[in-house]
Recover the amino acids of this structure.
């Protein structure tokens, strides 16, 4: 796992995220099968923890193309229907809701003069 360094004062990190990395944010570690896949998923979650810490301190922004957001939901569906990671529809729906909440910004936040948009 590569190390994400602390940004210098006045600097900002910019991250471009792909569909699989974005989908991994919403999938709980408990549903991932044992082995190499679980190690990769744990590594993704560790990256996300650091990135979210930087976002909260306003030292980072996350960018992803619109098509990657659609593909992230497709990745979740594949993990549910094909690879059978989720035990039931309720776990799958929780993951979808978590991802939807992460990538959307409420309208009330968007109309503020001093808005904080964490995901672009």
């Amino acid at each position: 796992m590569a190390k994400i360094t602390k940004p210098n004062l006045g600097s900002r990190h910019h991250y471009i995220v792909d569909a699989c990395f974005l989908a991994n944010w919403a999938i709980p570690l408990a549903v991932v099968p044992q082995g190499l896949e679980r190690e990769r998923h744990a590594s993704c979650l560790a990256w996300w923890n650091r990135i979210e810490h930087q976002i909260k301190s306003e030292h980072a922004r996350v960018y992803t193309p619109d098509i990657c957001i659609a593909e992230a939901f497709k990745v979740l569906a594949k993990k549910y229907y094909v690879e059978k990671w989720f035990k039931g529809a309720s776990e799958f729906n929780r993951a979808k809701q978590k991802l939807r909440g992460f990538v959307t910004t409420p309208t009330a936040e968007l109309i503020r003069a001093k808005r904080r948009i964490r995901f672009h």
